Amino acid sequence: MKADPNNESISSGRVVAAHGRHAVVEDHAHNRYHCAMKGRRLRPVCADEVRWRLEQTDVGDGVVVEILPRRTELARPDRRGRTEVIASNMSQIVVVIAPQPEPDYSLVDRYLVAAELVGVSAAVVGNKSDIATLNLAGFAALGYLTVTVSACQPDGLAPLMDLLSGQTSILVGQSGVGKSSLLNAMIPGLDSRTQTLSDGSGEGRHTTTASILHHLGNGGEVIDSPGVRDYAPPPVSARQLATGFIEFAEAASQCRFADCRHLAEPDCGVKAALEHGGISRRRYESYCHLVERLAAIDPDNYS
Ligand code: GDP
Ligand code: ZN
Predict the structure, then answer these.
(1) Helix axis angle, 281-297 relative to 105-118, nearest 10°?
(2) How far is CA 50 from the centre of its chain?
(3) What count of Cα atoms within 13 Å lies in the side-chain half-sphere of residue 102?
(4) Which positions ≥6 away from 219 have C-beta within 8 Å?
(5) Do residues 62 and 54 touch, judged by C-beta distance below 8 A?
(6) Most distant CA atoms of the chain, gap in Å
(7) What pLDDT, on a 0 to 100 scale, did the predictor assign at position 1?
(8) Lowest CB count within 10 Å: 26, 31, 179, 214, which one?
């Protein structure tokens, strides 16, 4: 076989921002290159590990030739019901909530379910503690790490920095809870609000849906993903969905039917636990809400 003349110059890199079929790839020295994709099938997402080479194209300075297998993927159903990958290779999902805007706890639960289904850890951050301190005890009781901070009080951000240290985290939550403010407070010199992803030609600018990977001083990496303000996991069976509610497992072992969906079935262990307080009504309602939402996308699985 003939050696690829370009092979020598192929090196490994990391996607720190992706938009459609363009990606910003970072080398080991943290230099960044705007890259096009080789071939139609490559669909890069933020935090992908890739093989790429220097090559001038319309897009910029490089071409990605391969996306390496992803360790994890956070995905959601797109408008047509297909699965869209938001980011890859995260080890943790960090959900930010605040006293203002009023927390959407059902959204928090949807992210926690996603973390369970993807197989990564999850944490809940209560921001804006200068306004009011949210009660996160319910999440802590389920086994999730919780941290209370204020982006306005940078001296008190150590617990959040510790949570993010050594992990690749995706920061998610409603618009306005303070995700950008927290990033700005943790990363000196970053103004994530004005950060844009230029296409290298100096003309087009892609700002709207790009996820961006930031490095923290402590070795942590944070994926800022503006596209995940509303979220539901991709369709799975009701049984799989129930495994995303970690506290359901023990109660579900008491259900009369092995394929119980914990809705209208008789002798349901989950509903029994709901009656005597082992499972909170709020979490059960989140489950029912999610079943309805997923059934709308994928009726066959929920009939
Ligand atoms: P994002 O949409 O989650 O990125 O939220 P932003 O970072 O844009 O913050 C939304 C608003 O909340 C802005 O007006 C911030 O100044 C404000 N904000 C963010 N964090 C805090 C905080 O800890 N305390 C207070 N009082 N306001 C905050
Ligand atoms: Zn049941």
Answers:
(1) 70
(2) 20
(3) 0
(4) 165, 166
(5) yes
(6) 71
(7) 43
(8) 31
pLDDT at 211: 86
Check if 14 has its Cβ closer than 6 Å to any atom of ligand 1: no
CA distances from 151 to 11, 128, 131, 189, 224 (A): 38, 7, 11, 15, 16
Ligand approaching nearest to the C-alpha of 226:
1
The single-letter DSSP state of residue 214 is E
Q: Name the residue type at position 243.
A: T
pLDDT-derived band at 300, boundaries 50, 70, 90: confident
For the segment 6-25, what is each residue's pLDDT rounded down to a tens digit? Answer: 556 899 999 999 988 899 99
Beta partners for residue 62, in sequence order: 35, 54
Q: Under a CB-based contact definition with an 8 Å cutoff, are residues 146 and 157 in contact?
A: no
Q: What is the pTM of this model?
A: 0.91
Starting from the CA of residue 251, give the closest ligand: 2
Q: Is 128 in the pocket of ligand 1 (CB under 6 A)?
A: yes
Kindly give the distance from the C-alpha atom of residue 176 to the centroid of ligand 1, in angstroms, as a whole number. 6
Q: Which ligand is nearest to the CA of 255?
A: 2
- Check if 174 has its Cβ closer than 6 Å to any atom of ligand 1: no
Ligand 1 pocket member 92 (CB < 6 A): no
Looking at residue 225, its pLDDT comes to 85
- 81 vs 287, which has greater pLDDT? 287
Instruction: Compute the mean pLDDT over every residue in the chain, rounded to the nearest whole number.
Output: 89
Neighbours of 302 (CB within 10 A): 17
In order, the DSSP letters of 41-93 are: T----BT-EEEEEE---SS-SEEEEEEPPPS-EEEEE-TTS-EEEEEES-SEE
